[in-house]
Amino acid sequence: MLDRAIAETPDVTEGDERLDLPDPEVREEGNVTVVENFQTLCDQLGREPDHLLQFLQAEVGTSGHIDESGRARITGSFGADRIAEAVDGYTSAFVRCSECGLPDTRLERENGVELLRCEACGARSATPDDG
Length: 131
Fold this sequence. Notes:
This protein has helices spanning about 1-10, 40-45, 50-60, 80-95; strands at about 25-30, 30-35, 65, 70-75, 105-110, 115-120, 125.
């Protein structure tokens, strides 16, 4: 049983390089900010695009949507630094484990509460209200 448990446990290595996020590629189109690599960010974080978009909208205080190309289109003018800051906030709140700090987590819903479950250390914690 121990061998099976070890085989099913994800390999855990130290360091931030395990979660290598690209910088947001941001450009402005009139009164809209477009995050060109939004889908790539979601893939790297292992989260649904709608969940990240909802967080970004709350962080910058505006509306937005995901276009047919997978880019986030956020109403208003926001620089790459502001979007990167919001993505970092999302990573802290919804990706990194609050106990061990590793990104080996997944979101679960239990009894109507969204939980962050760490597959590395087994910790479970409630996520902040995401809007």
